[in-house]
Amino acid sequence: MEIKKGKYRHFKGKEYEVLGTAIHSETLEQMVIYRPLYGEGKIWVRPLSMWNQMIVKDGLKRKRFTLIEGVEDEN
């Protein structure tokens, strides 16, 4: 499963920037590297499987994070 760099909106409304991905050194699980576009802007990681998870809110099934502005890779 792959994820694009760019700006995402969390289902609760706040926005985040995905900086890239990494592999957990012990479990080999794919992780998303991101930062909130509010507050202190600290760098965080979250399992890719959790990032891409579907959630149910108010009886509606939706993505936890939705891409709102992608960034082209510089390869």
Model description:
- With 75 residues, the chain is mainly β.
- It has a single domain, classed as SH3 type barrels (Roll).
- It contains one helix and seven strands.
- The strands form two sheets. A five-stranded antiparallel sheet has the order 4-3-2-1-7. Strands 5-6 form a two-stranded antiparallel sheet.
- A hairpin with a 6-residue loop joins strand 2 and strand 3.
Topology (elements, then pairings):
Blueprint: E1 6-10, E2 15-23, E3 30-36, E4 44-47, H1 48-51, E5 54-57, E6 60-63, E7 65-70
Average of the residue pLDDT scores: 91
Distance between the termini: 19 Å
The total of helices stands at: 1
- The helicity comes to under 10%
- Residues in β-strands, percent: over 45%
Q: What is the CATH homologous superfamily assignment?
A: DUF1653-like domain
How would you describe the shape? Answer: globular
What attributes characterize this protein structure?
75 residues; mainly beta; SH3 type barrels; 5-stranded antiparallel β-sheet; two-stranded antiparallel ribbon; 7 strands; 52% strand
